[in-house]
């Protein structure tokens, strides 16, 4: 258990819209300087939770503390945060300089101090020469940088990002997520980002909060979430996963299509229906024979070339012809001369197998 003091402490937070419960009893600790991603499908409650933290949608019940201060019922203007919306929400009639300066001017800062801060921020987001332009004259990526600079202008303790990259094309999105993460690391500002993009969450977050139907399914580092999903929803939503119907047979083993595999599991009665989960990249095919641990004899039903690897649809040929998705490196495909119709052995490593109840 993390013993660091919480920067943001959310306790039993619930939000209802009429008869609809958008957030259910949410409790979460976020630590100073962290980059946390709220990840989940549309309608899972991640944006509602962000808006509750900002005071834009006050919770129905529960509490939120920021640095020990109860902010649960404070209006947004009395909370310490900066926010970047999906639409950027820049003022179209104001120049870049005036957009960035807006929050500072509202705080009645002196003109010289505002000018110096705006200059510092535009340099920080790599736009030192763009201050005279209007939002319509900027690309989507440039508008996003301006929105970020404006959110950071008042040096908030908390930065909130509501799907900030979703409106950008793929190449700009990849570049900007790297820039935002570098900037957050440099400034050390505690940051929460809402996203439905698992790749964004995996590459940017220190910790990921996986949400579904108004609740939290799992909280952990990107590696923990990817490697050790706590349930089938997380396993399915983050990354690609094989879900294979199997039967528990005792001694930590399961039966898959007539073949017994060591899965290191306990707590299942013999004969119980279970689901065996394994990532496609964890299916091992190099130097595997019939006597290898957890070996399956398979046939390649189809192969898809994806640049740096091949995605192969395999069919287990011993027993019930269970389909298994695998990812093979180009080197393996070349060295083993793998192609559609090839017959081979693969293994599902015990350490990479997850087993959940039900089928």
What brief labels describe this structure?
359 residues, 25% helix, 33% strand, elongated
Could you explain the architecture of this structure?
The protein is α+β, with helices and mostly antiparallel strands. The protein has nine helices and 19 strands. It has helices spanning 46-54, 96-106, 111-124, 140-152, 170-187, 198-204, 222-227, 232-237, 330-335, and strands at residues 8-17, 20-30, 35-39, 61-66, 69-70, 82-84, 158-162, 190-195, 207-212, 215-220, 242-250, 253-256, 259-262, 273-278, 295-305, 309-316, 323-329, 343-347, 354-357. The protein is elongated, with a radius of gyration of 25 Å. Helix content is 25%, strand content 33%. Strand 9 and strand 10 form a beta hairpin. Strands 6-7-8-3-9-10 form a six-stranded mixed beta sheet, sandwiched between helices. Strands 13-12-11-14-19 form a five-stranded antiparallel beta sheet, with no helix packed on it. It has a four-stranded antiparallel beta sheet with strand order 2-1-4-5, with helices on one face.
């Amino acid at each position: 258990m993390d013993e660091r003091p919480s920067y943001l402490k959310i306790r039993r937070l619930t939000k209802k819209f009429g008869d609809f419960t958008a957030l259910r009893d949410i409790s979460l600790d976020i630590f100073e300087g962290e980059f946390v991603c709220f990840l989940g499908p549309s309608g899972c409650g991640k944006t509602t939770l962000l808006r509750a933290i900002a005071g834009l949608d006050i919770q129905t019940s529960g509490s939120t503390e920021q640095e020990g201060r109860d902010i649960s019922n404070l209006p947004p203007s009395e909370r310490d945060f900066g926010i970047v919306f999906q639409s950027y929400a820049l003022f179209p009639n104001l120049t870049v300089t005036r957009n960035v300066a807006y929050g500072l001017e509202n705080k009645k800062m002196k003109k010289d101090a505002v000018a110096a801060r705006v200059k510092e921020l535009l340099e920080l987001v790599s736009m030192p020469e763009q201050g005279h332009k209007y939002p319509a004259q900027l690309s989507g990526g440039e508008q996003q940088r301006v929105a970020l600079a404006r959110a950071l202008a008042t040096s908030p303790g908390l930065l909130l990002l509501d799907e900030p990259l979703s409106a950008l094309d793929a190449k700009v999105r990849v570049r900007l997520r790297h820039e935002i993460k570098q900037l957050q690391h440099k400034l050390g500002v505690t940051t929460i980002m809402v996203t439905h993009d698992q790749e964004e969450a995996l590459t940017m977050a220190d910790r990921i909060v996986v949400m579904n139907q108004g609740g939290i399914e799992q909280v952990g580092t990107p590696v923990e979430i990817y490697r050790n999903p706590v349930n089938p929803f997380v396993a399915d939503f983050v990354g690609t996963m094989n879900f294979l119907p199997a039967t528990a047979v005792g001694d930590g083993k399961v039966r898959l299509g007539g073949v017994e595999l060591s899965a290191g599991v306990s707590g299942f009665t013999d004969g119980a229906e279970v689901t065996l989960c394994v990532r496609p990249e964890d299916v091992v095919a190099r130097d595997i024979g019939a006597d290898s641990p957890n070996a399956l004899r398979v046939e390649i039903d189809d192969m898809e070339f994806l640049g740096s690897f091949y995605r192969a649809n395999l069919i287990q040929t011993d027993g019930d012809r269970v389909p298994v998705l695998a990812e093979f490196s180009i080197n393996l495909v070349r060295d083993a001369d793998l192609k559609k119709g090839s017959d081979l052995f693969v293994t599902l490593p015990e350490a990479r197998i997850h087993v959940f109840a039900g089928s």
